[in-house]
Amino acid sequence: MTEQTGGPTGEQTGGLRSPLHDEHVALGAALTSFAGWQMPLRYTSDLAEHTAVRTAAGLFDLSHMGEIAVTGPDAGRFLDLALVGTLSSLRVLGARYTMVVQPDGGVIDDLVVYRTGEQEYLVVANASNHVTVLGELRARAAGLDVEVADRSAATGLVAVQGPRALEVVLATPGLAADPDAPAGVTPETLRYYACLPMRFDDVPVLVARTGYTGEDGFEFFLPADAAPALWRALLTAGEPYGTVPAGLSARDSLRLEAGMPLYGNELDRTTTPHDAGLGRVVKLDKVDADGTPLPFVGRDALAARAASAPARVLVGLQGLGRRAARHGYAVHASTATDAPAVGTVTSGAPSPTLGHPVAMAYVTPEVSAEGTELAVDVRGRREPVRVVPLPFYRRPR
User: Fold this and answer.
1) What is the DSSP string of 326-346?
2) Is the distance from CB of 196 to CB of 187 less than 8 angstroms?
3) Residues 338-381: tens digit of each pLDDT
């Protein structure tokens, strides 16, 4: 990120500060620079925070994410033209995972889009791509009756994730129903990938049942100046349920176990959604009012890619030893020193939940079958790995 997109600039640390910055400092968080922001890497230990999310609940600050409001009579049609998904068909208070791509199909960013009204959408972009996505959307809105507004600076985003997340939400004082909420929809009945208007101390909050950890959980979009009070309320209410604040390190190991892509690792401008095994989010059957194919950005390139054999496949790798593969490490056909390279690791780490290393990697199709044994060059030594299905971890239902 090359320009300020929200929050005050920190004079001592440099970079952007979340509205929860003082909360993190008070909790003794180790801060790190991420996408131009000073964000908590960890509060205690990576293992403790990861385990808390898998067994109880973790509280995350996501205020570095970009929030872009898209409103107007042409809002749905505009998003259909600008993104790879069909957003005009999204129900009000529904959410959808989608992407914005280049004309050649390369991924500019992966997004979650919430429909907050008949003519109102909220586009949530990754922090590192927020400014780029904002510019792309504004450029693609030309000639349409739609407004694209950056709401990032005014928005705080807090998430509680884990098997006890619902209990934490229900126990949090100040959280109450919104009079405009649909009848019968509460945090208990809210579906996955849906959202609900609520109030916190009479401040409007959009509560979404989405997440990036593989667990059940809720994300809270609210005015930035109200975020610290909600953070403290959730943390206090969650204490009896084992809730702990969790940083970026735990968030990364959790999403890796859940097989969720990270922009800059599994996704980038040289990668199409189909390369990443996410071709399902590309809706080539979108049509205009007269039934002709809708010419969304990247359509022709993605149609050609969908019809062609893949040059590489994203797979899961289970480490058969103790040393973990990491981003950028070469994947080889075997542990033999003369075995050819067949791919590259995109993400890798020891899995606290499973007890062995895991990684995602792009490999050539002929070695992508489940059960294929390969090797990863870990600092000069070939470590054995096995191709396994993604995700590595699924939460109990």
Assistant:
1) -TTPEEESSSSTTPPEEEEEE
2) yes
3) 999 999 999 999 999 999 999 999 999 999 999 999 999 999 99
User: Around 181, how many Cα atoms within 13 Å sit in the side-chain half-sphere?
Assistant: 22
Q: Is 8 a residue whose pLDDT tops 50?
A: no
Which neighbouring-strand residues pair with 200?
175, 203
Evaluate if residue 2 carries a pLDDT over 50: no
Band of residue 289 on the pLDDT scale cut at 50, 70, 90: confident
Cβ neighbors of 363 (< 8 A, separation 6 or more) are 312, 313, 315, 331, 342, 343, 374, 387
pLDDT in tens, 251-282: 999 999 999 999 999 999 999 999 999 999 99
Residue type, 206: L
Contact residues for 29 (Cβ-Cβ < 8 A; gap 6+) = 40, 41, 42, 43, 245, 247
Distance CA 81, CA 368 (A): 34
Burial class (CB in 10 A: 0-12, 13-18, 19+), 136: buried
3-state secondary structure of 281: helix
Q: What would the two tokens of residue 366 be?
A: 């002929």
The SS3 call for residue 262 is: coil
Two tokens at 92? Answer: 């009000």
The Cα–Cα gap between 60 and 63 comes to 9
| Strand pairing report for 37-42 and 30-34 | antiparallel
Q: How far is CA 344 from CA 153, 218, 350, in A?
A: 37, 34, 17
User: In the structure encoding, which two tokens stand for residue 381, read together?
Assistant: 């030594």
On the question of a cis peptide bond just before residue 340, with omega within 30 degrees of 0, the verdict is no
Handedness of CA 160, 161, 164, 167 (dihedral sign): positive
Q: What is the pLDDT of the chain when averaged over all its residues?
A: 95
Euclidean distance between CA atoms 239 and 56, whole angstroms: 10
Query: CB 371: neighbour CB atoms within 10 A?
Result: 7
Residue 209 CB neighbours (<10 A): 21
Q: State mean pLDDT over 296-320.
A: 97
Structure tokens at 164: 């006890």
